[in-house]
Amino acid sequence: MNTAIILILGIPLIEIYLFIKVGSQIGALNTILLILTTAVVGIWYARYEGFNTLRSGMSQLVKNEVPLYEMVSGAAIAFAALLLILPGFATDIVGVLLVFPVTRKIILKKYSKKYSSKKKPKENNLVEGEYEDIEDKDGR
Predict the structure, then answer these.
(1) Chain centroid, CA 52 distance in Å
(2) What is the 3 state secondary structure string of the chain?
(3) Angle, to 10 degrees, between the axis of helix 89-99 and the axis of helix 101-115?
(4) pLDDT digits 0-9 by tens, 3-61
């Protein structure tokens, strides 16, 4: 089965299950307040970390270096903010893990190794050969 279909169907089912379990323990109003609180606090912290990443990227540019980690980290923070906006506990947990720099670095390192090219570069990419300028009869 396609992974996207599993995610589209599975995530809401997990969230509904967690809503029911948490709601039965702490009450419906407290569950709603908890979801709204995690969204607001998570968005605020994602904004804070986003500005830190932007500042770090600008310092990399000043040093004339490519801010590759900062670009990937910024995308991860944007995705984390999206997850924190979505109502639910499972998405909030993943979003919080992506917002914090320590866990974000661990997650990005894991997936960068998984999706990096496993091909080793060839030892000798040099092709030797000879060439000769050929002039036309007119001398061009």
Answers:
(1) 16
(2) CCHHHHHHHHHHHHHHHHHHHHHHHHCHHHHHHHHHHHHHHHHHHHHHHHHHHHHHHHHHHHCCCCCHHHHHHHHHHHHHHHHHHCCCHHHHHHHHHHHCHHHHHHHHHHHHHHHCCCCCCCCCCCCCCCCCCCCCCCCC
(3) 90
(4) 888 888 899 999 999 999 999 999 999 999 999 998 888 888 888 888 888 888 888 88
Q: How far is CA 92 from CA 15, 109, 117, in A?
A: 10, 21, 31
Q: How confident is the model at residue 116 (pLDDT cuts 50, 70, 90)?
A: low
Q: Which two tokens stand for residue 1?
A: 């089965």
51-89 b/e (C-beta count within 10 Å ≥ 16 → b): eebeeebeebeeeeeebeebeebbebbeebbebbebebb
Decide: 78 and 72 in contact? Cβ < 8 Å. Answer: no
Sign of CA dihedral 88, 90, 93, 97: negative
The closest of 82, 69, 74 to 52, measured between CA atoms, is 74
